[in-house]
């Protein structure tokens, strides 16, 4: 199994209800692939020298899952309240090295 992070953007057209999130988390837990997650608050970007890039104001939260491949991880978008509400979810692999 490989580790992936789902990065939810704050651009959904429809707002998710709290029960949608609990249902989605129960689905992931039931598959044994859920490794945590959280909403993401405001922050700042830093750089030792020079001007840093702007922090993304679109990231709203993340979920960490395990899957065999990116294609398999993509299958777990079904039921994700951001995705189902017309919003953007990035999936990134978390390398072990």
Your description of this structure?
The protein has 97 residues and is of the alpha+beta class. Helices cover 23% and strands 30% of the residues. The model has no long low-confidence stretch (mean pLDDT 93). The chain has a four-stranded antiparallel beta sheet with strand order 2-3-1-4. The two termini are 15 Å apart. The chain has three helices and four strands. The radius of gyration is 15 Å and the shape is globular.
Features:
single chain, 97 residues, alpha+beta, four-stranded antiparallel beta sheet, 4 strands, globular
Strand content: 25-35%
Per DSSP, the total helix count is 3
**Which stretches are low in confidence, meaning pLDDT under 50 for 5 or more residues running?**
none
Dominant shape:
globular
In which range does the helix fraction lie? 10-25%
Task: Determine the structural class based on helices, strands and strand pairing.
Answer: alpha+beta
Helix-strand topology string? EHEEHHE
Please give the alpha-carbon distance between the first and last residues. 15 Å
Mean pLDDT metric:
93
Tell me the strand order in the biggest sheet.
2-3-1-4
Spatial extent as radius of gyration: 15 Å
- Biggest sheet character: 4 strands, antiparallel
Count of strand segments: 4
């Amino acid at each position: 199994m490989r580790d992936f992070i789902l990065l939810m953007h704050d651009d959904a057209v429809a707002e998710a209800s709290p029960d949608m999130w609990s249902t989605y988390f129960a689905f992931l837990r039931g598959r044994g692939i859920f490794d945590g997650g959280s909403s993401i608050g405001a922050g700042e970007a830093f750089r030792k020298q020079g001007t840093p890039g702007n922090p993304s104001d679109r990231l709203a939260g993340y979920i960490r899952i395990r899957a065999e491949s990116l294609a398999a991880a993509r299958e777990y978008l079904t039921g994700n309240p951001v995705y189902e509400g017309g919003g953007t979810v990035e999936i990134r692999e978390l390398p072990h090295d």
